[in-house]
Design goal:
It is a single chain. This protein is an alpha+beta fold. It has a domain of 70 residues: Glutaredoxin. It is built from 2 helices and 4 strands. The radius of gyration is 14 Å and the shape is globular. The chain starts with 9 loop residues before the first strand and ends in a 6-residue tail after the last helix. The model has no long low-confidence stretch (mean pLDDT 96). Bound molecules: FE2/S2 (inorganic) cluster. The site of FE2/S2 (inorganic) cluster has 12 residues, from loops.
């Protein structure tokens, strides 16, 4: 095993889990999680952040009822009930990281 610091200034994890056996709480993937991941990835590339900011799909984060959920690491920020309209605010959070990207 090799242990190292994360190579990314920010790693965006977007839940796209689908809880097929739970129709009352079907998961972030049924509420746009996958689309949010695609939009964030596009925005990261457009800003030239590739290599500094990584967007990844995740499974369940345990807050399914509040999804779609997005978390930023190592900033330890958690966004719930995220919609496309919230993405500029999430991107602005990343843009204002110190030191600058
Ligand atoms: S399905 Fe997204 S947090 Fe559980």
């Amino acid at each position: 095993m090799k242990k190292q610091l994360t190579p990314y200034r920010c790693h965006i994890f977007v839940c796209s889990n689908i809880r097929a056996n739970n129709p009352e709480n079907p998961g972030c993937g049924t509420k746009g999680g996958g689309e949010l991941k695609d939009l964030l990835k596009k925005a990261v590339n457009e800003r030239g952040w590739k290599g500094k900011v990584r967007v990844s799909t995740t499974g369940c984060m345990g807050l399914c009822g509040e999804g779609p959920n997005v978390i930023l690491y190592p900033q330890e920020l958690h966004f719930s009930a995220v919609t496309e309209a919230d993405l500029p605010a999430i991107l602005e959070t990343i843009e204002t990281l110190k030191p600058k990207l």
